[in-house]
Amino acid sequence: GADVRWSDPAVTEADMRAILERLEGAVVVRACRLTPMQEAMLEACDANPDAYLVENWAEILGALDPDALEKRLHALTERHEALRAVFITGENRPWQAVLERKDSFFSFEDLSALPGPEQEQRMRAARAALPRPRLIADPLVRLLLFRLGEDRFRVLLSWHHIILDGWSLGLLLSELFAPEAPSTPTVSFVE
Question: In the beta sheet, which residues pair with residue 159?
Fold first, then answer.
């Protein structure tokens, strides 16, 4: 059997078996009921799958190491349970399960050799090609990074509100761009 820890008394062994069956071999660390707000979001997603998908573009000016940023995103995913959460609709109620391991989504493209209009076109195309995340399996925080010049970047941070609210976003960004980086870039959000 799987070594699963959960503290929600509503999660029965039968529920856990059903959750593990749906997750096809993933190692579940914790399972629990959704908060009322998460349940409302999940219900809204049934009617509109793009509901509660949030995106922010930011301009980054300064030295930035894409490999280090990718490693930080991966480390954040390993450290924070919310970033490893998946959502399962069950017969009686939906469940949230925290996986032992879950991939993070990071993409980097160097567009610095292209003229400005082509850079914009490529960024829009990359955004359009970004698949809608499946709540039961996919990373629910995704980061696309584009180099526009030597010390100029544009980043698209996309997340599902079911795991990340405004307060949590601030914490995530402060850890992602923490001062222990070789040089802290200036981040300004793009309209």
Answer: 54, 141
* CB atoms near residue 173 (< 10 Å): 14
Reported confidence tier of residue 182, pLDDT bands at 50, 70, 90:
very low
pLDDT per residue as tens digits for the range 36-51: 999 999 999 989 999 9
